[in-house]
Amino acid sequence: MSFQYFRYSNELDREFSKTVTARVNSYFAEHHISKNGDYRMVFKTIMMLTGFFGPYLLILFFPFQNLASYYLLWAVMGVAMAGIGMGIMHDSIHGSYAKSPLINKLLGLTLNLMGGNAYVWHMQHNVLHHTYPNIDETDDDIDIPFLLRMSPHQPRHWFHRFQHLYVWLLYAFATVFWVTSKDFVMLDKYRQRNILKEKNEYIKRLLNIAVWKVVYFGYLLVLPISMLSIPWYITLSMFVVMHIIGGILLSIIFQPAHVFTGSDFIQQEENKIERSWHLYQLQTTTNFKLNPFLTWLSGGLNYQIEHHLFPHICHVHYPAIARIVKQTVKEFNMPYHLQKNLWGALFLHYDMLRSLGQEKLVPNQIHS
Fold it and tell me: Which of 21, 101, 106, 281 has the largest CB neighbor count within 10 A?
């Protein structure tokens, strides 16, 4: 597998990268605060884990008279599941939750408890997506073969003209696919790309994924089915409801941040990208405003620009450093995509998917 690498196209790119990094570092030094999480992360962790495992225990040990109560509890778990992913696991695997690698590793395993796999996510998200956003065949976040065309460089099929309509159904079931097969598919892809270097690493990773899947489906599906006096297919439907809610919440936060009208895309064949890494993050990423609760629930991922420029800084600091980034961007006349609200971000995502489905290539979206 060949990776692209970035290089400065001019002195302005170099100076911007140095300046924005120095200013953000100075902010933390001057205020004598850590770039990692603080009491706010501890509070969020307690709330999110309680929001997931609290309803789970109620389902198991406190029988309810009507099914609606059970569905409501599973729905709450779906919201908490998304919150754990965006607000706990995400920072932990980035190494920004705490200074301690052990704490980051342990809290990163919350993803395994939610049905995913910390190693696969690290490779897909931290290594590939963050380094090469919107680069086809390298950024796996836009690589959804056959079903979706999320880059002008991907093959177009006739049904892609409808993808802006059916994509929302795929997003609803995204985490169902994730917990059942995605991790296995991604691991095999990394094996084919020769990313797994150690001897027998593929087998070890495969076994790790399989064991965690058994644990996940055992405690979250088999145990409720065996303990509740509810038909198994009703419990299964509640499990799916949880995943639909979680899948929608995760998708509407992550997906519009990079695939939107105005974003940049680079062809896989390019081995050298004639721009700085910082500039490319600005060209492929958008922020969008959310109300305080959704900002809290989403782990500050509406500040995607700041997250991509400084992925090792905990999300509780994003609002503060966003002011620094915006000021620096303005001084250097760099792009800074910002949508007024989530609906605006979703519309640009919808519009981009519609454009990609209608045309083989999208004008003004290819920058070599």
Answer: 281
DSSP 48-97: HHHHHHHHHHHHHHS--SSHHHHHHHHHHHHHHHHHHIIIIIHHHHHT-S
As a whole number of angstroms, the distance between CA 156 and CA 16 comes to 37
CA 360 to CA 354: how far, in whole Å? Answer: 12
State whether the Cα torsion 102-34-46-110 is positive or negative.
Answer: negative
In this structure, what DSSP letter does residue 99 have? S
* 368 alpha-carbon distance from chain centroid: 26
What pLDDT does residue 13 have?
86
Distance of CA 294 to the CA centre of its chain: 15
Mapping DSSP to helix (H, G, I), strand (E, B) and coil, where does residue 5 land? strand
CA-CA-CA-CA torsion sign (166, 123, 318, 86): positive
φ, ψ dihedrals at 129, nearest 5°:
-65, -45
Successive 10-residue mean pLDDT values, the chain, 368 residues: 66 91 97 96 97 97 92 98 97 97 97 97 93 87 89 92 96 96 94 85 95 98 95 97 97 95 78 80 95 95 97 97 96 94 96 88 46
Closest residue by Cα to residue 295 from 286, 304, 283: 304
- Give Dmax over CA atoms of the chain in angstroms: 69
